[in-house]
Every structure is written in C-alpha cells, then in structure tokens.
C-alpha cells in the first residue's frame, strides 16, 4: 500500500522523466520513449521507472543505453525537482511490456 506522499512523488518523477526522455529522443527519428509508471520505495530512496518503448524490438538496447547514462539523467532530474525533493532517489529503469502482452492476448483471442 503506497502512501499519499509516495504517490505524489511518483507522479512528479513520472512527469519530469517523461519530459527528459522527450527532449532526448527528439534527435532519434522514429523512436518514442514514454514513462508508463514510477514506483517509489517507502523510504523514498529508490524509484523504479517502467518505460514503454516504440518500436518494441529496440527496447532492450534502449534500456541498456539509458542505464549507461543514468547519472546524467539523475542529475537532470535533480535540477528539475530540487525545490520539491531534498534527496533525489536512485533510479532504476525497466521495460514495460504490458502493451506487447495485450497485443499477444488479442491475437490469441482472434
């Protein structure tokens, strides 16, 4: 059960990370990265961000690239939310494959 504070911080991080990824992927035509959900630990030290990546076959490659540049992403996030948060949480990124799963279910039902 997440507290109200966890939910507010998760929404804030989701919004800011979405804007960061939007700016970074403008230089890559045909690539779309969106932040599906952010879950934050009860002590506010770790944030798990689930990314929906289009096209999905480049998902693993993109996650490796994002994890390699995690320090710069966290720094950019820290500059954006420095007035709302005292400590910027450690970021962990994962592929959100729920849309692929839904497509697979639809195909099986047809």
Automatic annotation (TrEMBL):
<protein>
    <recommendedName>
        <fullName>Ribosome-binding factor A</fullName>
    </recommendedName>
</protein>
<dbReference type="GO" id="GO:0030490">
    <property type="term" value="P:maturation of SSU-rRNA"/>
</dbReference>
<dbReference type="GO" id="GO:0043024">
    <property type="term" value="F:ribosomal small subunit binding"/>
</dbReference>
<comment type="function">
    <text>One of several proteins that assist in the late maturation steps of the functional core of the 30S ribosomal subunit. Associates with free 30S ribosomal subunits (but not with 30S subunits that are part of 70S ribosomes or polysomes). Required for efficient processing of 16S rRNA. May interact with the 5'-terminal helix region of 16S rRNA.</text>
</comment>
<keyword id="KW-0963">Cytoplasm</keyword>
<dbReference type="Pfam" id="PF02033">
    <property type="entry name" value="RBFA"/>
</dbReference>
<dbReference type="InterPro" id="IPR023799">
    <property type="entry name" value="RbfA_dom_sf"/>
</dbReference>
<comment type="similarity">
    <text>Belongs to the RbfA family.</text>
</comment>
<keyword id="KW-0690">Ribosome biogenesis</keyword>
<dbReference type="InterPro" id="IPR015946">
    <property type="entry name" value="KH_dom-like_a/b"/>
</dbReference>
<dbReference type="GO" id="GO:0005829">
    <property type="term" value="C:cytosol"/>
</dbReference>
<comment type="subunit">
    <text>Monomer. Binds 30S ribosomal subunits, but not 50S ribosomal subunits or 70S ribosomes.</text>
</comment>
<dbReference type="InterPro" id="IPR000238">
    <property type="entry name" value="RbfA"/>
</dbReference>
